[in-house]
Design a protein that fits this description.
This protein has about 70 residues and is α+β, with helices and mostly antiparallel strands. It is built from two helices and two strands.
Length: about 70
């Protein structure tokens, strides 16, 4: 990744500070999070968007994660 890359991170819980990365707490599926990402990007275009989000499909995360 080029040194000049602009990186944004968002999660439901605070992300430990990472040098050169803009982070904030947000739900990637919410309109507010989308607006915040657009604000942070300003006029820049995203080369890639990655997320580790998954729907809440069960009552037990540990059980769901390992089945």
């Amino acid at each position: 990744m080029p040194v000049s890359s602009f990186i944004i991170g968002t999660d439901l819980v605070p992300i430990k500070p990472i040098k050169g990365v803009t982070t904030f707490v947000g739900d990637i599926t919410s309109p507010e999070c989308f607006s915040r990402i657009r604000y942070e990007l300003r006029k820049r275009r995203a080369d890639i968007v990655l997320h580790d989000g998954a729907p809440n499909v069960g009552a037990s995360w540990l059980k769901d994660a390992y089945e």
